[in-house]
Structures are given as structure tokens and as C-alpha cells.
Amino acid sequence: MSSTSPLDDPATDPFDVAREAAEYIAAKTGVPGHDVALVLGSGWGGAAELIGDVVAELPTAEIPGFTKPAVDGHRSTTRSVRVERPDGSVRYALVLGSRTHLYEGLGTRRVVHGVRTAAATGASTVVLTNGCGGLHASWRPGQPVLLKDHVNLTGQSPLKGATFVDMTDVYTPRLRELARSVDGDLPEGVYAQFRGPQYETPAEVRMAGFLGADLVGMSTALEAVAARHCGLDVLGISLVTNLAAGISLHPLSHAEVLEAGQEAGPRISDLLARIVKLL
């Protein structure tokens, strides 16, 4: 179980904690604001070094509201990266090497704290990545897929009260077009988030498919909702690390997820770096 956080107190405003975290990041990195943020899921961790020059690296658990990652394959640091764009201009990217998953039982406020902190640093765009199960046998492990929509099957929302946010284009069409300009062969799909931590059953995978999903996993959708509430543009990219239960002929394991991520890491990291330089 992760250590306590000010977000655990329901009387605490989570946006106050996000602003405190942003101020801490600015003070420790010497970068007053960031333009884009990246949440790096399983397999995506090598992208930061390819995006640009790492200005500063902070232990994530020392930033207000954050704790150490609970999942193997996630980094325990947050980095500020100087990104030089093709036109010679400079942007700064905040790279979050880990995320809190809903299945950790720590509540939705912790799950979306990274996204809210990114918005508080000044970011206008967030890139959400993950490793996931694929419902299409033609999408072999190692295949990156752009997210065009999601199905939230967690029964949870990071929003409270009468907070109505339009989800029509939760994953920004303009950013998907930009990604396809880098790699025209990128397929698009719908991501279904389950709570976890158990993997989905074959019946649950079939249900997700009936609902329109192409991918299943345990992250991203709640973060995307919080990002849209904060006014951020969202680019979502999944890495198919395994075929989903009932599609695969073999039992699922986290070791398989890590192995697929490691094998695809250099290629997908290069893809993500090229995309980010154009954002």
C-alpha cells in the first residue's frame, strides 16, 4: 500500500494539492511552466530521453500528492525535458514515469492527480500511454494504437457533483491527425477501462467488444476525463502487450506485459518522441 497523501483527506481541495505540486516542480526544476505532459505506461518509459534534454529529474514520491509507483515497469521519477521543435522553438515537457491505478484502492483523486498537476504547471496537452490487451488477433504484441474513444467500465468518475463535461471528442482529433502524419499506418481503436487488478475474463472481453471496444486495460479513461475537465487536449496511445483473454490461446501474466513492452520499447519511444516534437 502506498503512503498517505493530502488527497486522502476528503476536506482537501485536490486542485489546491495540484497547484502545490506544480509550484514544487517549478522550484525544483527551475522551469516555471510546462507546455505538454506525458504519462508513460508499460513499455513507454524510454521516450523521455528521445524527446529532448532532461533538465531535471525528481523522485515522484517527493512531489506533493504523489507516491511511489506500485507496479513493476513504471519509473519512480518525474522529469522536466527541454524539447526543441522542428521550427527551432523550445517547449518543456513534464514526463510522469508512473501513475496510480484505481485497483490500488486509493481513490480517484490520486488516480488523476498527475493530470491535474500537469494542468497546474501550464500544460495545454497531455499524452496518455498504456500497455493493454488487444481484441483483434491481427494486432500483435508490440502494436501501438491511437485512442479515438473509450468506455469507462470502472463505475467511477474523478468528477464530483454536477460537473458536466462534454466527452464527444475526449481524444483530440487534431492530435490524432498529427500522430498519423508521423506514422500513417497507426490504427485507431476504442479503449475499455476495467477496474482490475485481475485480468478480464473471456466473457468480459466479449462484452467489451459488443460495447465497441478494441482494447482493454486498467488505466487512462479516468485520467482522460479529468484532463478534459481541466481543459487539456488529450492524445492517447496504447501499446498492445498481449491478446486479451479468450483471444489469446495462453494464460495472461504481467511478465508477458513487461516482456512485450521491453521488446517494443525502442520503436514506440522513437514514435512518441517524434510526435511530441510536433505538438
CATH class identity = Alpha Beta
Number of helices: 8
Please give the order of strands in the largest beta sheet.
Answer: 5-8-7-6-9
Proportion in helices = 25-40%
Known CATH architecture: 3-Layer(aba) Sandwich
Annotated CATH topology:
Rossmann fold
Q: Provide the succession of SSEs.
A: HEHEEEHHEEHEHEHEH
What does this 3D model show about the protein?
- By secondary structure, the chain is of the alpha/beta class.
- It has one domain: Nucleoside phosphorylase domain (Rossmann fold), CATH 3.40.50.1580.
- 30% of the residues lie in helices and 24% in strands.
- It is built from 8 helices and 9 strands.
- A 5-stranded mixed β-barrel has the order 5-8-7-6-9, surrounded by 5 helices.
- Helix 1 (14-29) packs across helix 4.
- The N and C termini lie far apart (36 Å).
- The relative contact order is 0.20.
- The model has no long low-confidence stretch (mean pLDDT 91).
- Belongs to the PNP/MTAP phosphorylase family.
- This is Purine nucleoside phosphorylase.
Write a concise keyword list for the protein shown above.
24% strand, PUNP, alpha/beta, 9 strands, 279 residues, Purine nucleoside phosphorylase, Rossmann fold, 8 helices, five-stranded mixed beta barrel, single chain
What's the topology here?
Blueprint: H1 14-29, E1 36-39, H2 47-51, E2 53-59, E3 77-84, E4 90-96, H3 108-111, H4 113-120, E5 125-134, E6 143-152, H5 173-182, E7 188-193, H6 202-210, E8 215-217, H7 221-229, E9 233-243, H8 254-276
Parallel strand pairs: 1-4, 1-5, 5-9, 6-7, 7-8
Antiparallel strand pairs: 2-3, 3-4, 5-8, 6-9
GO biological process, one term: nucleoside metabolic process
Protein name: Purine nucleoside phosphorylase
Binding site for phosphate: 42, 74, 99-101, 131, 219
